[in-house]
Model the fold of this input.
Amino acid sequence: MVANTGTMNGQTRTRRVMHGLAFRRAEVRRVERLTPRYVRITVGGDALEGFQTLGAQDHFKLMLPNAGQTEPVIPTMTPEGPRYPEDVARPVMRDYTPFAFDPETNELTFDVVLHGQGVASDWARQAAPGQVVGTAGPRGSHIVDYGAFDWFLAAGDETSIPSIARALAALPRGMKANVFIEVDGPEDELPLPTDAEAQITWVHRNGAPAGTSPVLEQAIRAFDFPAGEGFQTYTGEANALRDIRRYIVKERGFDKQWVDVSGHWKYGVADFDHHTAIED
Ligand SMILES: Cc1cc2nc3c(=O)[nH]c(=O)nc-3n(C[C@H](O)[C@H](O)[C@H](O)COP(=O)(O)OP(=O)(O)OC[C@H]3O[C@@H](n4cnc5c(N)ncnc54)[C@H](O)[C@@H]3O)c2cc1C
Done:
């Protein structure tokens, strides 16, 4: 199903494809510590057959067991929606970006930032092969025809690395791209392969707690935007994004249609609902 197409001069530049909701059981296959605060986890299993991820900004719900459970309770889909057995604790769910899905092996790879304390971060810190999780979604994919734009810009914090990496890998050869990623320090930087003509800027918050530093906004404000029409994406902590969006849309007057702003988490809020509108 295709909905919400973004067109310009009759040319379709972005479109949304919806996927049927599916809940799947998966087993941890591999765990790799990429940086001190970043874990790459690969899960697999027959239930992942048919997992769909078409867009760089896709997300799925990672379902985790509650205390005292060895695995999360996976609901069955009925015409009325998901049905859970009675008297069992429903799984804890958090949003993650599918970094890669291999349909040959039915393996899904995603990256988890290890931050202070949170159910998902705590789980990822101890994740080991054989453990069981669940996945729900992705419900849809936002597909961008990057080549229809003159340039691409992405900015975000470390939770954005998987989606930015996917977008960079999908950009046409030689496309002009600028990327700003806020991390604590140089030890948090990761390789971002691309055929684009990309300038990657790692912005360091140098010990300030994530979600409290203005360094990403400062980097965007100091940036000399190229001429022509660009596609821009901003993801990360919701309060920081509010200020960046105000600058991009209100002060700079970029067309909102081609500026994608999505809060991945909010400082001090557990299980932040990313559908919450980012206020002006
Ligand atoms: C569309 C989408 C895609 C996402 N993709 C990824 C991804 O690929 N990888 C990834 O790591 N995250 C990703 N996130 C963010 C992730 O869902 C949140 O960080 C989530 O809150 C983590 O859950 P938790 O149980 O660890 O912490 P929670 O229980 O939700 O929160 C506990 C506390 O930790 C704080 N907190 C939450 N996240 C962070 C953080 N990153 N840094 C510092 N403090 C934090 C909260 O403010 C709260 O005070 C994505 C979010 C969305 C909406």
Remarks:
- Residues 217 and 244 are 6 Å apart (CA to CA).
- Residues 59, 94-97, 110-113, 115-116, 118-121, 159, 162, 210-211, 262, 264-272, 274 surround flavin-adenine dinucleotide (CB under 6 Å).
- Helices lie at 119-126, 161-170, 215-221, 238-251.
- The first strand starts at residue 2 and ends at 8.
